[in-house]
Every structure is written in C-alpha cells, then in structure tokens.
Design goal:
The structure is a single chain. This protein folds into two domains: 115 residues, no CATH class; 51 residues. Helix content is 56%, strand content 0%. It contains six helices and no strands.
Length: 199
C-alpha cells in the first residue's frame, strides 16, 4: 500500500524547496494516516493546498489594493479546498473505522457501512443460548469492546437489565409482605408504580 510520500512523489519535481515539501508530506502522513487510494487522494489535496497557502504573501506586506484583493481571493479558495478535502477524508475514514468495527468485508466498494449495518442488523443471541455458568459463580457480563456492540444488542441488554430489576423489586416486596403479614401493618407494600406486579 502506498504512503502519502509515494503518492505525491512527482510533486517535488516542480518545487524549489523540495526538502521542506518532503518534511511537510511526512507531517501530513503522520497526522492524517490515509489508507487506500481514495484516502490518499484527499490527503494529497490537503497537502498541496496547504503548500500553496503558505506560499502566499502575508496580509501585512506592502502590496497595492488590487494585489491584496487577488491574494485574498486565492487564500479563500485554497482554504475552501482544504475544508472540502478534510470533510471527504473524514467521511472515508469514519466509514473505514465502522467497517472494521463490525467486521464488514473490504469488498463493499463505496457502499456506506452505516447503511449496511442498519439493513442487515441481527438480534443478538437469545439468553437461552448463552454459555452456562458454573454453580455458585457470580453472574457477570463478558467484557466487550463498546465499538463492536451493535445497537440491537445494546437495546436487548437494556431490556434484560430492566426486567431483572423489575423481578428483583417484586421479590423483595413479596418477601417483606410475607414477613409482616398480621404484624399490625395497615397495608401491604406495593411495587414501584413503573413495575408490573407478579402474575
């Protein structure tokens, strides 16, 4: 896979200060970390535009008004190019990170991995199929990288936790009422308003 320096190797042939351009290329390669031909294309646009921008005269130089206006328009155009290339590179790299996080193949071309994940979203494995735990072993959730958990799995885990809390509170309320029946308490304790009573 090419580096940014290899991708822009012919650029320095037309430059007077090749050493500075080479150093600038290395800095951008380290900062942007492009991977693949498309990311390299936009990283190169950012590099070249930045080079042109730093070659323009600064605003406090002794220039006549037409020259000042001309350089101001050039500066604005170059800055627009930099912002555009950064936006496109960010979009490509975000898609790459998502693709890697959900183990999508690298053969999807320019397809949006976010749309693929939404279209092919699968529910996580039912609880009955989860590995059995050893008797007496505390019930703990397996460690997982949050970036690799699909939204459907998060929703199911939240629903499962809410159900466990509901059942726990119902059991505590039932135990309290059994212990205090006939002990002079005027009314039994009821579960929280948001909880369903046991069948």
């Amino acid at each position: 896979m090419k580096t940014l320096a290899e991708f822009t190797a012919n650029d320095s042939a037309y430059l007077a200060d090749r050493a500075f351009y080479t150093a600038l290329t290395a800095d951008f390669d380290a900062a942007l970390q492009p991977s693949g031909i498309l990311e390299l294309t936009f990283a190169a646009e950012i590099l070249r535009a930045t080079w042109r921008l730093q070659r323009l005269p600064v605003g406090d130089m002794d220039l006549d008004q037409p020259s000042t206006d001309h350089f101001a328009r050039l500066r604005t155009g170059i800055q627009t190019t930099i912002r555009w290339a950064m936006t496109e590179l960010r979009r490509l790299q975000t898609a790459r990170v998502i693709r890697d996080a959900v183990d999508l193949p690298n053969t999807i071309g320019l397809a949006d991995p976010k749309e693929i994940v939404k279209a092919t979203r699968q529910p996580s494995r039912p609880l009955a199929q989860q590995p059995a735990q050893t008797a007496g072993e505390p019930r703990t959730a397996p460690a997982a990288n949050p970036a690799t958990i699909p939204p459907s799995a998060v929703d199911q885990m939240e629903a499962m936790l809410a159900g466990m809390l509901d059942r726990s509170e119902r059991e505590q309320v039932a135990a309290f009422n059994r212990q205090h029946q006939g002990a002079g308490h005027p009314a039994a304790v009821r579960p929280s308003a948001g909880l369903k009573t046991a069948a």
